[in-house]
Design brief:
mainly alpha; ARM-type_fold; HEAT repeat domain-containing protein
Amino acid sequence: MFDPDIAPSGTLLGLLQRGRGDGTLHALAASRAEALEALNQCVLRDPRRDWQVENRSLYYARLYLDLDGDLGALEEHLFAPGDLLDGAEERTGLALAVLGHLASYGRADALALLRRYAATGGNWAWALDELALRDDDAGLLSLCAPVLARFPHTPEGEAALTTAVRDAFEPRPWRLWADDERFPALAARVRAARERGSFDRWQRQLRPSGPRPGWSVREVLQWADAGLEQHPAQHRHVPATRCLTAVAGPEDREEIIDAARRGGEAARATALRYLAEHHDPQALDLIEAAADDPAPLVAGAAVTAFERMRSAAALERARAWIHRPDALGAAAAGMLACRGAQYDAALVLGALRRTVRTEGCDAPVLFDLVDGAGRLQIGCAAPVLRHVYRETASSHLRGRAARALAATDPSFATGFAVECLWDCEESTRELAAHHATTADARVVEQLRRLAADPAEEAEVQSAVRGRFEPDAPAL
């Protein structure tokens, strides 16, 4: 996780960084040089706030195809002198994923770059995973020797090789190498690494660490606290809560309540989660007190415990806490947005407006508040939802705002739904495929392109095909 530098939403760079459909449309209307400069900047400096869950690679790859973009900037970035020194996946992951999509579209230069980087680059495992999905057997077999050469014939090297084989996201290359009869020594080495990985996994299952059957409530709480004394510290309150559920009985309630009030940090966090999950009558009062605790672990566990509650009493307390300006107030707003009744619409709308005004368009609680505005069909929330849609740097939040607008804004089908057909998130494109109408001739053309694109998600293509059926709504 990192905080990228995002350009204003009204600029071409800002649109492309956010992955908005208008980014593609504006890039195709701009000069090719300007569009490629902005596109390269996005790919080389990953703009995503959470690069592990937000999608951009297919979006950028399609734009490279539309612009017939050269890959020289990506090559220079991947093979920079510091590549082998900077092992962070987020530095090269987006560029490699874009190359993977371009290779699947038939770009031979992208395939060659991936092969070269898998053989010599620092983030070689990612490149190998991309090739595992797109390259032929001959191309993958040619990489066996250079990849294995990374691991010296020492105990440390063999251990690293075992880890690489065991943790590979795509096992296809390793299976090919293990069965390659042309190089028996290399094949034997891969097979041995696979066997060691399986044996290590089996050993871990035979030697589990942590609580044992027969432990008491006190021993579980002590085990949770002991984790904070480790180096680095181990936060055990979540697994300790599951253990507490297994060993605690009604006679242990007072001891757990006392731990929630006066125990160590991890013990308090464990006890709070346990009491909340079992709907104890004192849980909400203990959560309210713990939310103001100076220890971040305790305060965070209190908020998380409240968020997981599903009782009517928790909803009532949320209505009282929603005006708090802290994390517990945000959790209360999220709970009402997700589970509140129609008469809670005014509270949810107030929290939505207040959050956008005070925290901006990327506050974490906006995910729930935007969903709530759509679920409760709060029509007067449409202006603030449109603002969130335009300004947020999170493509996931923008997709939720689009879904909420589909339920609250009568102009959605002829407005934002059109640009959503080019959005970076497949769920947003799917929504647009259901809703977009054609006041713009480009809509039908884009729907047909999505239907014919082999890289498009099946859900999007199903939605598109539904629009072309005889009884489908008019385009």
